[in-house]
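Okay, any thoughts on this one?
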Amino acid sequence: MINEEIIGFVDMTTSNKSGAHSGTDHDAEASSPSWSSPSTVSTMATDCGPRCARIDGVDWVVWKGKSDNYLWYTIGSDGQWSIPNGLGIQTSSSPAIAAYNGLVYVFWRDASDDYIYYATYDGHSWTHVPGYRVPGSTTTAGPAAASFDGKLYLAWSASSKDLCTLSRFDGSDWYGPQFNGYVIQAGPALAVGQNLLLYSYCQTINGIGIARQVDNRGTTVPSAQSDDGPALASDSENLWVMWKDFNSGNLMTSTISDTQLIQPSSPSATASGMSTPYSPGMCGDSTGLRCVWADVENFTVKTSTRAPVQPMPPTPPTPRPIPPRPTPTPTPTTDRPVPPQINGADQNTISGVTAYNYYVTITVTSSEGDQLTNTQTQAKSDGSWACTLDYTLTQGMTIKAVTSEDKDSPASGAYVKVIGQFQTSPLRITSVETGQVSGVAPETGQVIKAWRQSDGALMVLYPVPAASPTSDGKTFTAPYVRDMKLNAGDLLCVVSQFPKDGTMTPFNRQYEGYSSP
């Protein structure tokens, strides 16, 4: 079960204006009353289709920012969406999201080399290292992901052949890629329905296809036309496919009730205002469906839900219900230490400082992402610690250090240093307030992170906006996540970090109320 630690709920109940929903031959069919009126997930604009997943009864939405190309995500439900959090990762296409083995996985097409990379979230922090790259995964579009039969599956359009391609992950190794023979345009979609893994795709002739992974048996949706990838989800009764209509941009749906994929239903319109220039995302279970898309007018992230076909009894409260907008509390919420600082990494020695007599766990990975070391050492009575390796540190190796009060007590977040990657100057903090921190990063393209000294809670995860006519790309004002507050007398421990889990600056630690002279 995933514990969403980094959450700040905001009220997004203001409904959208209703746009015209016309311009396709299918408009003669009445819009389904089961799709709710569109509402806003985030006012942030995106230039790719957003994606969603239902994980432990909570809906996650992830998208690419239009202005900065960074990945952003939020969790919650209609009217109660968390403040968007950035992953500090840039992409060039729609991302994918799925849960597997107790972790949330987010996949993306890298903006520089077109390979698919991924990050994982354990309920406390995100992890992504250079080795988190799917072998053989170069693509021209966004991927799709789904967990099925004890494996995590990934699908994409192979950049060399435009073939629908699948690979699977068993928690340790990736197997594949395998080409299924379907030539596609744009990214595919994956979903599990009736104990089968299925995929959907946009044909080069603009049709919408659906196929089974077990034998690649497939069919097409009658009269469906699109020029972008579809979405796929199951409500436990039917398999639903959704796509953007080629002519109008309206979102259309079709359902399939049999596992033989013999008779998809004719296209049906959704609801007024559900139009987009990009591909949609969709997720669901027996409680209903959710779809997400970029608004056709202002490109903000929108959503609509659909109730089950058959009346369902009231769903009992889950162990993790969506809370209302939280009330700040002065009591600690995580009871973990702040990450240990790495002061030195030279030859075969790594050293740093943490709290007195605490335990520090050091992980070293190669530039390819292979783990080389995972060891624990205890800090001295003055807080200093050191680790000696049986090999020499070389360019591109990544060192991560976490600390805990006892050997097996909850560990802190990670402090990161990449060999050969250096911060050019210290992080400057100009003010620390109850709800935000301001300062100047040493370079452009940095991600600001900060932890609260009293309980080790992550307070800031903020990609500094890119340089523009009104910004130098370094100066920032970062709000605290989850609407968290820093109480009087508490200390904020702030670092600036290269994206993709790069080298961090030394901590700049300042008390609440601090203002630089």
